[in-house]
Amino acid sequence: MPKFLRIGIHQSNVSGYTSKAWCVRRVGTAILLKWGAVEVHGAGDGRKVYWTRLPQQKTIRCGSAQRAQDYAKAAIARRRNHRYEPLTGAIVLRRRPAAGNTELKRALATILIVDIVGSTAKAAKLGDVRWTKIMGHYYAAVRKELKSSRGKEVTTTGDGVLATFKTPAAGINCATAIQKAVRTLGLEIRVGLHAGEYTVSGTEAVGLAFHIGTRVAAKASAGEVLVSSAVKELMASQSAINLKDHGIHRLKGVPEKWRLYRVEG
Fold first, then answer.
1. Do the bridges between strand 30-41 and strand 17-27 make them parallel or antiparallel, or are there none, so unpaired?
2. What confidence score (pLDDT) does residue 76 get?
3. Gene3D superfamilies this protein is in (predicted)?
4. SS3 assignment for the chain
5. Which domain, by its residues, includes 73?
6. Are 8 and 106 members of one domain?
7. What's the rounded mean pLDDT across residues 108-122?
8. What pLDDT shows up at residue 59?
9. What mean pLDDT do residues 120-147 have?
10. Pairing between strand 160-165 and 30-41?
11. Burial class of residue 66 in the structure, from the number of CB atoms within 10 Å of its CB (0-12 exposed, 13-18 middle, 19+ buried)
């Protein structure tokens, strides 16, 4: 079964990030597809890939072996044209601790989402070698600012970063610092911040607050830092940071409408 892993920061030999994988298999006149989020550990020959949860599966009936073969070829070509690399070796489902042995903890934090604008077009223009080098510098710059601001990296998503902060001011200051740092690499980013609770289970952090932060970031344009109303309310006493009303927005998949604010200056 041919397998494909989304090309991401693994080219920089960074371990412990999330990506997406596809599996394509032809069985007679049918095509079996399997896809989902994966967690990657290690690099090179020692790299291991795990499904983060049960992958989605779909069977496509093609009616004839020739049609199935043509479908499989086209599916494989599409993966290779959409920044996926052929993946050798198995993708296994990581065994989670039994529910009785998993301690759930609730945490409150300011959540920061950073995403590169136009990364696919820029990667295609620069080529794999130059883009890989730039991405290495990009993640180094982001992590340097996170450390300076006492932010905690939660995960990476392709060319994005998700981190948490104890205070909104620290998250906003870190966001503007990251903007300045990555512009020297010729990159523009969009940033979203939200404040809310999430659940920590073992080494995993999950919760609606992360999804809201991601949707806030999606509303930002290149060079913008947007924050949710939850962040604004916590910033009432922070006169040094100027927030401008950015209107009311509906966030995809999130209940109700949200008022967002743009960081000025």
1. antiparallel
2. 87
3. Nucleotide cyclase (3.30.70.1230)
4. CCEEEECCHHHHCCCCEEEEEEEEEEECCEEEEEEEEEEEECCHHHCEEEECCCCEEEEEECCCHHHHHHHHHHHHHHHHHCCEEEECCCEEECCCCCHHHCCEEEEEEEEEEEEECCHHHHHHHHCHHHHHHHHHHHHHHHHHHHHHCCCEEEEEECCEEEEEECCHHHHHHHHHHHHHHHHCCCCCEEEEEEEEEEEEECCEEECHHHHHHHHHHHCCCCCCEEEEHHHHHHCCCCCCCEEEEEEEEECCCCCCEEEEEEEEC
5. 3-93
6. no
7. 89
8. 87
9. 88
10. unpaired
11. exposed
The pLDDT of residue 8 = 54
44 shares its domain with 165: no
The answer to whether residue 133 scores a pLDDT higher than 60 is: yes
Find the mean pLDDT for residues 146-169: 86
Q: Which of 99-113, 135-149, 151-165, 241-255 has the lowest mean pLDDT?
A: 99-113
Radius of gyration of the chain (CA): 20
Point out which residues pair with 40 in neighbouring strands: 17, 49
| Same domain flag for 80 and 150 | no
* 215 and 123, same domain (yes or no): yes
pLDDT of residue 249: 92
By the 10 Å C-beta count (0-12 exposed, 13-18 middle, 19+ buried), 102 is classed as: exposed
Q: Contact, 188 vs 224, CB < 8 A? A: no
Q: What is the mean pLDDT of residues 175-197?
A: 92
Number of independent structural domains in the chain: 2
What is the average per-residue pLDDT within 206-227? 88
* pTM to 2 decimal places: 0.60
Residues 85 and 166 in one domain: no
